[in-house]
Amino acid sequence: MEHITHNKKTGEKEGQKKCFMFDVPCSMNRGFTLLEILVYISILSLVLLLTSTAIFYFSQSNKQTKGDREVLENARRAMEIITYEINGAKSIYTPTSSPNQISLETSKYLPANETTTYIDFFLCGTRICLKKEAQDPFFLTSDSVEVTTLEFTQVSTNGNESIKIALTMNYQDSINNIFPSISITSTASLRSY
């Protein structure tokens, strides 16, 4: 049996073996126990799990907000342009109008030596197009949205002609499983001046 005495000046126990490179007794430099390591690992894992979950949630929320904003902005812009053109039109050109297309007779965008011209709104695949007479159609909506419904209904009240416009649009992002959608309806009156 080893006899150990305590030195009151240095606070060390005499006869106790010193650990390599350190001036502390070996019994004081014992390292971590397995239980302590497991507790540290579990706490660290929990913190990492909570942090990664929060980052994932905020990332998904940001993508959803972006999709909502994109759909709303495209629908608003398309509806504003369509109602503006209907409001300024002279009449509805019925031979080429259908529930999914509207043709308007207008005095805007006149070709040379003409007094009236025609503009059309219709679906080009999954996007809304505007076509002016003697020009190629151009898109009113971006390729990040898909228009699933575009309907024009003629409404006549007390001799005033109006067009009811129904529009449904979806955001296209199947990679992140985000599918914001919007359905809006508006009515625009023909204001022949």
TrEMBL record:
<feature type="transmembrane region" description="Helical">
    <location>
        <begin position="37"/>
        <end position="59"/>
    </location>
</feature>
<keyword id="KW-0472">Membrane</keyword>
<keyword id="KW-1133">Transmembrane helix</keyword>
<protein>
    <recommendedName>
        <fullName>Prepilin-type N-terminal cleavage/methylation domain-containing protein</fullName>
    </recommendedName>
</protein>
<keyword id="KW-0812">Transmembrane</keyword>
<dbReference type="InterPro" id="IPR012902">
    <property type="entry name" value="N_methyl_site"/>
</dbReference>
<dbReference type="Pfam" id="PF07963">
    <property type="entry name" value="N_methyl"/>
</dbReference>
